[in-house]
């Protein structure tokens, strides 16, 4: 589940970076502050987010993630102490939101024609080129979306962690939850930062004198765009896996049925819960979107 959560976060951040890339290309002279950083917008890059913007975007989401943990850890302890029955319903609301996000992406992909996508892109380009458009607010809005997703996934992991130390003294619970929150945030966003900077690593290697370094760098540069696209697809699937998993775990009858089907599946049992959780996630996402 933690691996799926990471893929969801990477997908969200990749989407943010794509949107910021468009802004960076279209607004060459506009500069402003965003989340404590300077948003330097110019037309000097070929594709993707300029190197200076990639890490600030990831850092902005990481800071939001830390704030999420500062809210979630004491809230989880308070809910567990006074209204423990509320944990599962809250997680299910978050799971339903993830399923909705995933299904919305699917609907946009399959229900919109190429012409409609091009028209939307043209409208976005026109809006970004408009001097009246606040690009800082645009980027902040995109980053807030990734932080919202992080909040849901962090709540899930905090709840799971709390369940493992539910019988421990309060001091130990605080230490464990805080430690997991810090390590998880640093580890996840450190990895995300490394992934989004792969192209820079490839470029750096191609500029080295050795032929081996040039070959490896070239391979990384060729593979990086495809890897980000594949991560986007996998990240969308992970939304259904994580969200559907939360929902099925919250309904005991469904959860036990999945366990029984898994047990009777023999050697293929490891993939059964993933498939059923994904199906549940797709159905839930459709219901939320239509509703």
Automatic annotation (TrEMBL):
Residue stretches spanning the membrane: 76-100, 151-168, 174-196, 231-258, 270-290
Keywords: Membrane, Transmembrane, Transmembrane helix
Pfam families in alphabetical order: DUF808 (PF05661)
GO cellular component: plasma membrane
InterPro entries reported in the protein's UniProt record: YedI
Classification via PANTHER family: INNER MEMBRANE PROTEIN YEDI (PTHR30503:SF3)
Protein name per UniProt: Membrane protein
Classification of source organism: Bacteria, Pseudomonadati, Pseudomonadota, Gammaproteobacteria, Pseudomonadales
